[in-house]
Design goal:
Elements lengths: L6 E2 L2 E2 L2 H12 L12 E6 L5 H14 L4 E6 H12 L6 E7 L4 E7 L2 E2 L5 E3 L3 H15 L7 H11 L6 H7 L11 E4 L10 E3 L20 H11 L2 E4 L2 H4 L17 H11 L2 H8 L2 E4 L8 H12 L8 E3 L6 H10 L4 H4 L1 E2 H7 L1 H9 L1
Parallel strand pairs: 3-4, 5-12, 12-13
Antiparallel strand pairs: 1-2, 4-14, 5-6, 6-7, 6-8, 9-10, 9-11
Helix pairs in contact: 3-12, 4-5, 9-11
Length: about 350
């Protein structure tokens, strides 16, 4: 049996399924709302195709019958949240949104995304997880159907290397010289429901929930029992080579620039007058940016490739996973929201063209 998500790369590809998802979300089991009495704010992917935007208009007004609605991209809403957190809100923001399907770099001026300077990298959390699944399945045991488990392994064990070539060379060693190597004890869903990390260079000891079962058992017997009962996943260079794809996607044949180069290209596409303001306010959002060392590695690479006269300031928006939602709630509660929406009556009279003009403003 195979399944597909109704949204791929940020765009709806299966409208029947997506309609059911929305219907349940709006229904009595979740939000319990009456669309005719509500205004809807939706996020959409940067540079979303007009055909998909038009279909969303039809679903919102003709199928569900909302009173009014508005769309914004996730980077724009994340930038709005970042502004509320800053002591000196800036008019220019350069957002790097590394999410599930892809990574976008979006310059924003006065709340408006500069689409001509937006860049997209087809590497996101999904690709990193799939790459890790492939490597583990080839080297250890088949985990191709264990997406949630491998995602958990990625989030807990993978990290962005600050000195990739040096750390990669250490993975060739055995024993304590290999400082990258870790072991992940797979969950058995009886005594260990999530799995736990183990450093093979440390003395063997009982870890996690299973430790309680071995109380009073001599150390040698513990190790023997663990060896027979536990399923252990050994990770070494995978911990750094998988996240490295964000910086060098060509390693797996994706002929695109890495995240630092994408930011540099976005800056280069903007007029010189705003480059300094954008470079001094680079905001990171999206779950993939939570990989350890991501921010520091990006800052170092930007400093190497950008002109020295540009001040580089890179910060994380708080709660990158939900930044777009929080930004949307701020926008929906603002005084300007009502002037940005399209009502059902306006849509009936002017159609899709009004939605495109107003949502681009």
């Amino acid at each position: 049996m195979q399944y597909r998500l109704s949204i791929e790369r940020g765009c709806v590809v299966n409208w029947d399924t997506q309609t059911e998802v929305w219907a349940r979300a709006f229904g009595s089991d979740v939000l319990n709302i009456h669309p005719a009495d509500c205004s809807l704010l939706l996020t959409e992917a940067p540079m979303c195709p007009p055909s998909i935007q038009d279909t969303v208009d039809e679903m919102v007004f003709e199928h569900f019958g909302f009173q009014s609605y508005c769309t914004r991209t996730a980077p724009v809403l994340a930038a709005l949240k970042a502004q509320t957190e800053s002591e000196q809100p800036a008019n220019c923001t350069l957002v790097l949104d590394a999410g599930f399907s892809s990574t976008h770099t979006v310059p924003i001026f006065g709340g408006t995304p500069l689409n001509f300077a937006t860049r997209r990298l087809n590497v996101g959390g999904k690709l990193l997880t799939n790459q890790l699944k492939t490597i583990i399945s080839y080297r250890s045991f088949n985990v191709m159907e264990e997406t949630r488990l491998v995602t958990d392994v990625k989030e807990r064990l993978c990290y962005v290397s600050l000195n990739f070539s040096v750390e990669l060379s250490t993975t060739q060693f055995k024993g304590k010289k290999n400082t990258v190597r870790r072991e992940f004890v797979m969950p058995d869903f009886v005594t260990n429901v999530r799995g736990h990390i183990r450093d093979p260079n440390e003395p063997m000891k009982a870890c996690g929930p299973s430790a309680e079962m071995h109380e009073g058992v001599p150390p040698k017997k513990k190790h023997k029992e663990g060896a027979s009962d536990e399923q252990v996943l050994k990770l070494s260079n995978e911990r750094i080579t998988v996240p490295e794809l964000l910086h060098h996607p060509s390693d797996i044949g994706i002929e695109q620039a890495g995240v630092a180069e994408c930011l540099a290209q976005s800056l280069e596409a903007c007029v010189p007058d705003v480059r300094d303001a954008l470079c001094s306010n680079i905001v990171l959002t999206g779950g993939t940016t939570l990989l350890p060392n991501f921010e520091e590695r990006l800052r170092r690479e930007l400093r190497e490739i950008l002109p020295s006269e540009l001040a580089v300031n890179v910060t994380h928006v708080s709660d990158p996973l939900l930044a777009a939602w929080f930004g949307g709630s701020i926008f929906a509660a603002s005084d300007t929201y009502e002037s940005q929406v399209v009502t059902k009556e306006e849509y009936s009279e002017y159609g899709h063209s009004l939605c495109r003009r107003r949502f681009m403003a």
